[in-house]
Amino acid sequence: MSRMTLRLATLFLGLFLASGAWAQEQAFTNRSTELKDIGSPSGKTLASLPGDTPVKVIARSGAWTKVEANGQHGYVNVFHLRFPATVEKSSSSSNPLSGITGFFGGGRDQPKTTIATTGIRGLSPEDLKNASPDPAALAKAQGYRSDKGSAERFAKDGKLATVSVDYSEGGRR
User: Fold this and answer.
1) In this structure, is residue 168 part of a structural domain?
2) DSSP 154
3) Is-above-0.70 flag for pTM?
4) In the predicted model, what is the mean pLDDT of residues 5-15?
5) Which of 8-22, 68-82, 106-120 has the highest average model confidence (pLDDT)?
6) Residue-number span of the structural domain to which 120 is assigned
7) Are 107 and 37 within one domain?
8) Residue 22 counted as domain residue
């Protein structure tokens, strides 16, 4: 087995083992939010959770996370949760796998960092089918637009520079 294959196998094994950790991950509300019976804004509110309420993550699904909070199960918008980053130092004396990690580019006393990220997919066909126009929201959004001259003055006042970005998908602009 080549060294690269061994590294990839170890990476996938680590990701597989780590995936079970999400089921019991600790998080905190980052603002006052509602615990819903279903993962939807239209769901029935089961409880109000103040900011900094500890919750146990049971499952993640798009914009909603199933949690246990204060003995109740329900759903919280993922943007209303804060996932603490974990940073710890490991040394060969306390880590039985230090020889293996050293082989894969790790070393003694390397910091171990875990960072949580959030990704949400776009609208589903059902969301689009059930959508309805909101003229007031459209008017409000249009009120935020700016003409070219105002945008250029804003950029000049902020000492912003023009940057040309090449798109990787067929040179689309």
Assistant:
1) no
2) H
3) no
4) 52
5) 68-82
6) 1-124
7) yes
8) yes
Same domain flag for 119 and 148: no
- The first and second tokens of residue 72, run together, are 């109740």
pLDDT of residue 121: 64
Q: For the chain, where are the E strands, in sequence order?
A: 26-29, 33-36, 45-49, 54-61, 64-69, 72-77, 81-82, 86-89, 111-114
Token pair belonging to 86: 């974990």
Q: Which residues contact 110 (CB under 8 A, 6 or more apart)?
A: 89, 90, 101
Same domain, 118 and 129: no
- In the structure, what pLDDT confidence band is assigned to residue 2 with cuts at 50, 70 and 90? low
For residue 23, the domain's CATH number is 2.30.30.40
Nearest to 36 by CA among 67, 71, 79: 67
Total domains in the fold of the chain: 2
pLDDT of residue 52: 92
